[in-house]
Write a structure and sequence with these properties.
It is a multi-pass membrane protein. It is found in: Cell membrane; Membrane. GO terms for molecular function: transmembrane transporter activity. By secondary structure, this protein is mainly α. The two termini are 37 Å apart. The strands form 3 sheets. The protein has a 4-stranded mixed β-sheet, covered by helices on one side. Strands 2-3 form a two-stranded antiparallel ribbon. It has a two-stranded antiparallel sheet with strand order 7-8. It has 22 helices and 8 strands. The chain has 2 domains: 51-67 and 205-404 and 416-632, no CATH class; 98-203, no CATH class. It has helices spanning 2-10, 15-40, 47-70, 74-77, 145-148, 175-183, 191-203, 205-254, 266-270, 275-299, 301-320, 322-325, 327-350, 371-407, 423-433, 436-466, 469-503, 507-520, 522-557, 559-562, 573-611, 621-627; strands at 98-100, 103-107, 110-113, 119-121, 158-161, 165-168, 354-357, 365-368.
Length: 640
């Protein structure tokens, strides 16, 4: 210390200025060391859980292979003939994949079918004929001689439905009645639409792939919009809510006397006999909601602005680390493929059950499982839920680590954080290499609750056949409790993975720290989660609708899809649009999960700084503003 003072005197500088510079350099070194420590501090946690998880995977792998080898998905969908053989699957009918109902009589365009005894055929009679063909005779069906006699051997014209069933052609006068009899449902008038809809999906694959890419592009554009205009969006949404509730209240009040004549039963909906009085009460409730939203906007305006700024900071962080922008695409592809693989194996396992026809029409069927098969089904569901939950946990930990590394990086002289390009890959490596056991532990809890939930749902379905009111009430309460526990555990797990990425604690310790942090940051976390929810709703709607609109435009305007002579012709644009909207919804959820996880991690990191007695020099100003807004009388802030 004396040496520093002497050097300062010799150089013509005051000792206080030199000491200030030394402290500043020391602080910078501390922050640099802290950034390095974020990677070096991590060690393996919950190793016993990792061993259990590996053993479970090793046991599940041969079981999955057995399901693939023993099952046949065609058993679930192909028709069943009068002898109980599944067309195209069972011996003797393996080369006859179509189900055909023999005619019992045919006169003057009318057709009568033997619905109880369908047969398997190699092709549907007349299905390959052009639509303009008027030929009434389409060969003979020898198999019909056993069920309908010689008269039934004369084949009638059919069309292929769902690639498995020979349905009477629409040229028959009683076509709708025949199809309704076959299906056992009133679907005769919708058969053509159903056939067109299903057949449009395979040919629409280029449009669906393009919709997936459009969903990604719109997702990135939405994040870019939030980066600069998050506050504008949330104020617009609040204004729209106020206007919508206010307008709806005015509508109900002014039309309260006319609702009866228009067939609107507001009173029955809320349990009142007087429809006019019920409408006015609903109007008052709507106006009250408008006032509540307005009061929230006024009283928490500073906190709302701070939360919006935090969302903008989270988007800034994503764009400053380009590798994070690839995570939604990776998640949508990897998890989507995993879901498809697991569903395929589950269908294979279900197909090993004994199958019998229900109603004798060859379409509906009953599945008869042994006790051992029920156990295998539960085991398969549990392992599937565990794998899916583990993939989600790895994704969340990876995001949390990358965001934490961004947070603890100090601002440079241009107020920009210079973060390495490998933060995401570091998070993935550390998550799998050090904390796979902890992630498997948290995932195990989710998988157990999901499995119990499915078992209770199955029990409830079985109870509907016996109508036991007491058991129905017990099951409803149990399902509600399990569902509530699952939602709570999922929320705690998210924050536990964030704490784990920062502290390298085990799962139990991280969950305990997360609960403590949620109490300390309760107000700020509520405001931030509310803002994130608004942005997620807008983003999900935008991406989903954009995907659907783009596909519909392709199917109706692009000649490759709208020209009936094209091999890619989409016969039902609405069906293709619906499928593309599901794809867009899935991609949108991946983007919104990234946004939610990034904003929560930033807030959690600042909470850790405060708990450790640090000043949060690396924290974005918006975070400080959000957390400490309650100290100035505007909304909930840090709880000491």
């Amino acid at each position: 210390m004396l040496g520093i003072a002497a050097a300062a005197a010799a150089g013509g500088m005051s000792p206080s200025r030199v000491m200030g510079g030394v402290q500043a350099v020391g602080k910078m070194l501390d922050f640099g060391q802290e950034e390095e420590d974020l990677k070096s501090r991590h060690h393996c946690t919950d190793i016993p859980c990792l061993i259990v998880f590996i053993v479970a995977l090793v046991a599940f792998a041969p079981f999955y292979i057995w399901c693939i080898s023993q099952g046949d998905v065609a058993r679930l969908f192909h028709g069943i003939d009068y002898r109980g053989r599944i067309c195209g699957v069972d011996p003797y009918v393996a080369n006859e994949p179509y189900l055909y109902w023999c005619s019992s009589s045919s006169a003057q365009g009318a057709l009568s079918l033997d619905l109880a005894d369908p047969i398997c055929v190699s092709s549907c009679p007349g299905a390959s004929q052009p639509s303009s063909s008027m030929t009434p005779f389409f060969g003979m069906q020898p198999g019909c001689a056993f069920v309908s006699g010689l008269e039934g051997m004369s084949a009638y014209r059919t069309v292929v439905m769902l690639g498995r069933y020979c349905i009477p052609h629409s040229s028959f006068t009683d076509y709708q009645s025949l199809v309704s009899q076959i299906s056992g449902k009133e679907m005769g008038g919708h058969t053509k639409k159903l056939m067109r809809s299903v057949s449009s999906i395979p040919s629409a694959w280029p449009a669906l792939l393009a919709a997936f890419m459009i969903s990604l592009v719109v997702g990135y554009l939405y994040l870019l919009f939030l980066r600069h205009c998050a506050e504008v969006l949330i104020w617009i949404s609040m204004g729209m809510c106020i206007v919508a509730f206010g307008w709806f209240g005015i509508f109900l009040w002014t039309h309260s006397k006319n609702l009866d004549t228009n067939g609107v039963d507001v009173g029955g909906t809320i349990g009142l006999e007087d429809n006019e009085q019920a409408a006015k009460i609903a109007a008052l409730i709507s106006w009250s909601l408008a006032v509540i939203v307005a009061l929230v906007a006024c009283c928490l305006r500073h906190s709302v602005a701070a939360a919006s700024a935090c969302i903008e900071v989270a988007c800034d962080e994503m764009f400053e680390m380009p590798s994070m922008l690839l995570l939604p695409m990776y998640k949508s592809i990897v998890k989507g493929l995993l879901v498809l693989v697991l569903i395929y194996g589950f269908l294979k396992l279900v197909s090993t059950a004994e199958i019998s026809t229900y109603g004798g029409n060859g379409i509906t069927r009953d599945f008869h499982f042994t006790d051992q098969q029920y156990v295998l089904l539960v085991y398969y569901m549990f392992m599937s839920f565990w794998l899916l939950a583990f993939s989600t946990a790895v994704y969340q930990f990876t995001v949390a680590f990358a965001v934490a590394e961004y947070y603890f990086t100090e601002y440079d002289h241009e107020q920009v954080k210079d973060v390495g390009c490998c933060a995401v890959w570091d998070g993935l490596h550390i998550g799998l290499g050090c904390h796979a056991g902890s992630l498997a532990y948290g995932s195990l809890l989710i998988a157990l609750l999901q499995t119990i939930q499915k078992i209770l749902e199955f029990a409830e379905k079985q109870n509907k056949e016996v109508q036991n009111k007491v058991l129905d009430c017990i099951l409803a309460c149990a399902m509600a409790c399990v569902g509530c526990c699952k939602e709570f555990v999922e929320f705690v797990n998210r924050n536990a993975y964030i704490d784990m990425a920062i502290t390298s604690e085990s799962f139990c310790d991280s969950a305990r720290n997360a609960l403590s942090m949620m109490v300390q940051l309760g107000g700020a976390m509520t405001i931030l989660n509310g803002a994130t929810f608004v942005f997620s709703v807008f983003g999900t709607s935008l991406i989903t609708l954009s995907s659907g609109a783009f596909t519909y435009w392709l199917a109706t305007s692009c000649s490759a899809f709208s020209d009936s002579r094209s091999s890619l012709f989409i016969d039902s644009p609405v069906t293709a649009m619906a499928v593309s909207m599901l794809i867009g919804l899935y991609v949108a959820l991946c983007f919104m999960d990234l946004l939610d996880m990034a904003s929560d991690t930033l807030l959690f990191c600042y909470g850790v700084d405060i708990q450790d007695g640090k000043l949060g020099h690396t924290a974005p100003p918006a975070l400080k503003d959000l957390v400490h807004s309650g100290e100035h009388g505007d909304g909930p802030g840090w709880r000491h």
